[in-house]
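Subject: for your reference before the review

Hello V.,

The reviewers asked for a structural picture of the protein, and I figured it would be easier to keep everything in one thread rather than splitting it across files. Below is the amino acid sequence we used in the manuscript, unchanged from the supplementary table.
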Amino acid sequence: MSAHLSPEEEAAVRDAIGALEIAEGVVPASAFPALREPALRKVVVQRLAACGRMLVSAEQGWVSGYDDQAADALAELGIGVLSPADRAVLALVLLRTVAVPRARGELSGTAWVTQDGARPTSIAELNHNRNLSKKQITESVRKLRTLGLLRPGHRAGILPGPALYRLSSQRAAWLWEDLLMLAAPDSSYARVLRARRTARSAPSRPDPQPSSAAASDHTATVSMEDG
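And here is what came back from the structure prediction:
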């Protein structure tokens, strides 16, 4: 269909892609004809795929993000990879705000960004970790907010940010696995995950770039004795 678009349809596709690429959060499906209509949405998917991007369903709308192949290639070049300290802080935030509440049954679903139920954390609470100074945590929170990996703004409550909507399903699963191995490294499930990753014939996946995955295996340097 992309070769036979009318001028109006072509404009609709371009408008939708432009909105997806610059939006800080989810673009409502109802906001653009090319996201609302399946035929035009298919063209959007094709155009994004041609440049290593993908269309991701999120809540009542859509976001765009790097596909896994493009994200891996960028990470191999060191583009967009978080520093160890930033990864560690992000891991702590995700553990406290989403992973632990979900494990306790206080939060449902599988999304990292949720409008209801996530438990905000704070600089003071994150500072319970013994391997990171308050200055490091404060600086990392500022960087992660700028990247959209934490909710932007100067609120006291710290929550996951809209950039995490852009995770592919595979990277979202990896992130859950990484945090599980961090939080419960001696559990039977963590042992299974480590064995599964070791047995993979493919080369080890590189650290993902920040808009597609956040807390990689390197967050294991964070002490879990953080209260």
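For the response letter, the relevant points are probably these. The chain has a mean pLDDT of 84. The chain has nine helices and three strands.

Happy to draft the paragraph if you're swamped.

O.
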